[in-house]
């Protein structure tokens, strides 16, 4: 099985670097870029928006992420307006706040991976009965 590809979007710095290292240690294939550069061209299963410590206005990113069909995980130490803007996306949005742990990342990313696989199964059509049951969940 291929490792899940996670694109970490956020400002360069120690927090994003630590997050990238944690995800690699947990077995994910990780790439990263500044969130303002965008994510459309990047090959990833899951988008992770790291908002910790950044005071920037993320509102200009919301429309592009809103249209993206990949699940999004937002990591933030406090509520931000972009969280409300991205809630209810068809691809799914999850918010982690506080002291994230390896186990928390694993569970959250497993849920987002399942959302992605379900979405891909619905768009490409099920190949067998088991896939049809999973896609319907």
Walk me through the structure.
- Helices cover 40% and strands 18% of the residues.
- The chain has helices spanning 14-25, 62-67, 81-86, 102-124, 129-136; strands at residues 5-10, 29-33, 46-50, 72-75, 93-96.
- The longest helix has 23 residues, at 102-124.
- The chain starts with a strand and ends with a helix.
- The model is unreliable at 129-137 (pLDDT under 50).
Keywords:
alpha/beta, 137 residues, single chain
Q: Please trace the helix and strand order, writing H or E for each element.
A: EHEEHEHEHH
**C-alpha-based Rg, rounded:** 15 Å
Q: What integer is the average pLDDT? A: 80
Strand order of the largest sheet: 2-1-3-4-5
**Poorly predicted segments:** 129-137
Q: Supply the helix-strand structural class.
A: alpha/beta
Q: Number of helix segments? A: 5
Which helices and strands occur, and which strands form pairs?
Blueprint: E1 5-10, H1 14-25, E2 29-33, E3 46-50, H2 62-67, E4 72-75, H3 81-86, E5 93-96, H4 102-124, H5 129-136
Kindly summarize this structure in a few lines.
This protein has 137 residues and is of the alpha/beta class. The chain has helices at 14-25, 62-67, 81-86, 102-124, 129-136, and strands at 5-10, 29-33, 46-50, 72-75, 93-96.
């Amino acid at each position: 099985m291929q490792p899940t590809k996670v694109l970490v979007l956020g400002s360069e710095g120690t927090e994003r670097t630590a997050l990238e290292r944690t995800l690699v240690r947990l077995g994910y294939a990780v790439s990263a870029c500044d969130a303002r550069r965008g994510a459309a061209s990047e090959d990833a299963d899951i988008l992770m928006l790291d908002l910790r410590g950044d005071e920037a206005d993320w509102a200009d990113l919301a429309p592009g992420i809103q249209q993206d069909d990949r699940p999004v995980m937002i990591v933030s130490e406090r509520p931000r307006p972009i969280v409300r803007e991205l809630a209810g996306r068809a691809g799914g949005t999850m918010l982690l706040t506080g002291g994230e742990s390896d186990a928390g990342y694993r569970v959250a990313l497993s849920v987002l991976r399942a959302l992605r696989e379900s979405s891909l199964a619905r768009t490409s059509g099920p190949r067998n009965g088991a896939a049809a049951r999973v896609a319907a969940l």
